[in-house]
TrEMBL record:
Protein origin, superkingdom: Bacteria
The protein, known as: Sigma factor-like helix-turn-helix DNA-binding protein
InterPro entries: DUF6596, RNA_pol_sigma70_r2, RNA_pol_sigma70_r4_t2, RNA_pol_sigma_r2, RNA_pol_sigma_r3/r4-like, TPR-like_helical_dom_sf, WH-like_DNA-bd_sf
All residue ranges annotated as the DUF6596 domain in the record: 177-277
Domain spans labelled RNA polymerase sigma-70 region: 19-77
Signal peptide, first to last residue: none
This protein's UniProt keywords: Sigma factor, Transcription, Transcription regulation
Domain RNA polymerase sigma factor 70 region 4 type: 108-159
Length: 422
């Protein structure tokens, strides 16, 4: 395979996998077959495209190839399997009226069926729609890879055992599934925002763009839902900073050091408008609305020094009351360090049960650094580097560690502060 064709196939797999699987799942009503046939279609592309050339519409070629392979397989098995006979008949049935008209959004909704446990819904959808690997999903959930693999397998088994159809969900199906849908979209966006796989690009714009696109579709279906608007605002305000988040050396750039002139002001304006509209509604905000408001404070500041940290801490206080998780408390402590100092923040961080989480050790490293406890700081950097999967983040942490000058840890940029959310 030539390098150029190999690169095209890699890109097409990233961009088209979810679309192909979603289309086949809708037509066949069987996720396992859809996934297998999509994989076979990509394998065929690896064999044929270097010889025949890349087709003008790679996604359509893959979908057609996968569908033909599915038809061939089902015809071979039709005599012994009634389920496959029904699937074969479903391929060309016209769509019913009132259906959601985006295959990938429909796959999100079907994977988020209420019959599945919430963690199973999220994990399955990340695998099938987000195209994330099992190790990537495991890192997102902070669990072992083997445990996550079993969770996804059980979700598929539950679908078969309960005879949950991969049919066409309707608009009235959405409210019962929206919590899981939003959680999935948020995790897909986060994996793009800071990719956990060291073999992938540190920032995956394909995932962030797809998460934003799907969230826009959900908002069009549920325009009055505050959490949908909040999630969209959160994504837009985060995506607006993407161009400034990684340096030319491939190193993560902390928020305080980012070139704010490179931020996308159009996305920021749209995100701020959504946040203001939710505030004007007078309704109690949910998780995503509060996170969007925190990002609105950051993106409203002309300079890092102008950040209203008291407002950020107050918003985190709201979020802690709503979701008192250790990770939320860790993020709050980062803001507390800017408002009340590193000693206060470190006391809060040290109470959190997050020893296997790289950001916990990175935060401790920076707080210890500011307190002049260089030897302890270096050890925490080492732990964070060992746990971090993102290459840009690893590069940043490595540089910060290597800047420590001697056992006291004092260096020219000692007062640089914590790497608040990038």
């Amino acid at each position: 395979m030539t390098d150029d064709v190999g690169e095209v196939i890699t890109r097409v797999h990233r961009e088209e996998w979810a679309r192909v699987v979603a289309t086949l799942a809708r037509r066949l009503g069987d996720l396992d077959i859809a996934e297998e046939m999509a994989a076979e279609a990509f394998a065929t592309a690896v064999e044929r495209w270097p010889v025949d050339g890349v087709p003008p519409n790679p996604g359509a070629w893959l979908t057609t190839t996968a569908q033909r392979k599915a038809i061939d397989r089902l015809r071979r098995e039709v005599k012994r399997d009634e389920k496959h006979r029904e699937a074969l008949m479903l391929i060309d049935i016209p769509e019913p009226l009132g259906a959601i008209d985006d295959d990938r959004l429909r796959l999100v909704l079907t994977c988020c069926h209420p019959a599945l446990a919430m963690d199973a819904r999220i994990a399955l959808t990340l695998r099938m729609v987000g195209g994330l690997t099992v190790p990537e999903i495991a890192r997102a959930f902070l669990v072992e890879e083997s445990a996550m693999g079993r969770r996804i397998t059980r979700a598929k088994a539950k679908i078969k055992a309960a005879k949950i159809p991969y049919g066409v969900p309707f608009r009235e199906d959405i409210p019962a599934r929206i919590t899981g849908v939003l959680a999935v979209l948020y995790l897909i966006f986060n994996e793009g925002y800071l990719a956990s796989d060291p073999g992938k690009e540190p920032v995956r714009g394909d995932l962030t763009a797809e998460a934003v696109r799907l969230t826009r579709l959900v908002r069009a279906l549920l325009p009055a839902d505050g959490e949908v608007a909040g999630l969209l605002a959160l994504m837009l305000l985060t995506e607006a900073r993407r161009a400034a988040r990684v340096s030319v050396r491939g190193e993560l750039v902390a928020l305080r050091d980012q070139d704010r002139g490179a931020w996308d002001r159009v996305l920021i304006a749209e995100g701020h408008a959504l946040v203001r509209a939710r505030l004007a509604s007078g309704q109690a905000p949910g998780r995503y609305q509060i996170l969007a408001a925190i990002n609105a404070v950051h993106t409203d500041a002309r300079d890092f020094r102008d950040t209203d940290w008291s407002q950020v801490v107050a918003l985190y206080d709201q979020l802690v009351r709503l979701e008192p998780s250790p990770i939320v408390r860790l993020n709050r402590a980062v803001a507390v360090a800017e408002l009340d100092g590193p000693e206060v923040a470190l006391a809060e961080v040290d109470r959190l049960p997050l020893d296997g989480y790289h950001a916990f050790h990175a935060t401790r490293a920076e707080l210890l650094r500011r307190l002049g406890r260089g030897e302890e700081s270096r050890a925490e950097y080492d732990r964070a580097i060992g746990l971090a999967g993102n290459t840009a983040e690893t590069a940043y942490l490595t540089r910060r560690r290597d800047q420590l000058a001697g056992p006291q840890g004092r260096s020219p940029d000692l007062a640089a502060g914590l790497p608040v959310p990038s």
